[in-house]
């Protein structure tokens, strides 16, 4: 489970997926499957959360990794490259962005 703290020394990644109400559940299922079967088993994975807005037009994924290199290594695996191609076909696009926690309230 992710823990949001200002002292976190790992890598935080927030990815936003632009979807339609017609594809939102398909993308969400693909993401849940990827986390259950691949991502959570990768070296350096600490935790993640998936969020969907009420209009079902955006899915947000918050993940934490021990190191930036761990996250990048996961993305480079053949399995995740194939899965990300499929997810990209289901949505308008997605963008992972690496962040540093600045404040917690």
TrEMBL record:
The keyword Transferase is assigned to this record: no
Lineage: superkingdom: Bacteria
Domain ABM: 12-82
InterPro entries: ABM_dom (IPR007138), Dimeric_a/b-barrel (IPR011008)
Keyword annotations of the record: Monooxygenase, Oxidoreductase
Keyword Oxidoreductase: yes
UniProt GO molecular function: monooxygenase activity
Protein name in UniProt: Antibiotic biosynthesis monooxygenase family protein
């Amino acid at each position: 489970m992710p823990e949001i703290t200002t002292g976190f020394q790992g890598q935080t990644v927030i990815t936003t997926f632009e979807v339609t109400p017609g594809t939102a559940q398909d993308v969400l299922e693909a993401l849940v499957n990827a986390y259950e079967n691949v991502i959570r088993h990768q070296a350096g994975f600490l935790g993640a959360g998936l969020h969907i807005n009420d209009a079902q037009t955006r899915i947000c994924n918050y993940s934490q990794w021990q190191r930036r290199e761990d996250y990048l290594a996961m993305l480079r695996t053949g399995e995740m490259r194939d899965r990300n191609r499929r997810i990209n076909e289901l949505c308008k696009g997605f963008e992972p962005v690496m962040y540093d926690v600045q404040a917690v309230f």
